[in-house]
Specification:
By secondary structure, this protein is of the alpha/beta class. It is built from nine helices and ten strands. β5 (149-150) and β6 (155-156) form a beta hairpin. α2 runs parallel beside α3 (85-98) and α6 packs across α7. The protein starts with a strand and ends with a helix.
């Protein structure tokens, strides 16, 4: 099992000094990847834990690409309908290029309706917009001079798409049938938010779908918090996730106050739980 870690790009910890320090701690500790989370327009009744402060995920990853050398850089997850498809593809390509092809693009359809309203995006069409954007990303990453594109929601003429590094790894978030279908069609991994007790049956279903579609079995990613003061229980929880079919574990340390606390938790996890 591979291990990643969530870095707070929200709240007071999302200042330049702390976020860079935590990133370097994660890289030095040997995590496979770090992950940031996406919100653009937090409504006043949803600000607990962040104060409404969120750094844009794509700009944050561009910053962290320059502060790191080896660790992969991921989003858990990008709310795809919030942004125009071609612009998203260009920003992703730029980060992938400047990071040395270290990006993991986790994507989701979103859930916070007031945020959609603030951005002028139709909430009911979020699944269709996500599918269209994923089609556009695959289309544009296919050639330096991709052909004209005409989808249900997006169309554009042929244009030069450079830089065009290797397409980043794409993980599909979401729990339901539509997300699982999306993972088989577009993804290299599936990133649900299901408890381990429900995960195993869904993983078996996803494997069957991938086999029927002639696709490689996607990576299965979970993101969890752990009570690190009880290392035996934490180890058992990670083992249960793996037994349920998870192949990748993102550690979420919650609202750590500063880089010192983050570092202590990282040391405990890597030394006593992941080892």
């Amino acid at each position: 099992m591979k291990f990643g870690i969530a870095i707070r790009n929200m709240g007071p910890q999302s200042n330049r000094t702390t976020i860079r320090a935590c990133t370097r701690i994660a890289e030095h500790a040997g995590f496979d990847a770090l992950f940031v989370s996406d919100h653009l327009c937090i409504p006043p009744d949803q600000t607990e834990g962040s104060g409404g402060r969120y750094l844009d995920v794509l700009a944050t990853l561009a910053f962290l690409a320059g502060a790191t050398e080896k660790i992969r850089l991921g989003i858990s997850v990008l709310v795809v309908p919030y942004r125009p498809s071609v612009l998203t593809a260009k920003q992703v390509a730029t980060i992938q290029e400047l990071s040395g092809e270290r990006m993991i693009l986790g994507v989701g359809v979103g859930w916070m309706k007031p945020e959609f309203d603030a951005l002028g995006v139709e909430f009911r069409r979020r699944g269709a917009i996500t599918d269209e954007t994923l089609n556009v990303i695959h289309h544009l990453f296919g050639a330096d001079l991709p052909g004209a594109y005409k989808g249900k929601l997006v169309k554009f003429p042929s244009f030069v798409f450079l830089p065009r590094p290797k397409r980043p790894t794409i993980w599909i978030g979401g729990n339901g049938p539509a997300a699982m279908t999306r993972a088989v069609k577009f993804g290299d991994g599936w990133h649900p938010m299901l408890p381990a007790t429900e995960l195993k049956a869904k993983v078996e279903e996803l494997h069957a779908g991938a086999l029927a579609a002639g696709r490689a079995v996607p990576e299965i990613i979970v993101r969890r918090g752990l009570k690190l003061e009880d290392t035996a229980a934490a180890r058992a929880k990670v083992a249960a996730e793996q037994e349920a079919g998870a192949t990748y574990f993102i550690l979420d340390l919650g609202r750590y106050p500063d880089e010192q606390s983050f570092g202590r938790s990282v040391e405990t996890f890597m030394g006593k739980v992941a080892s």
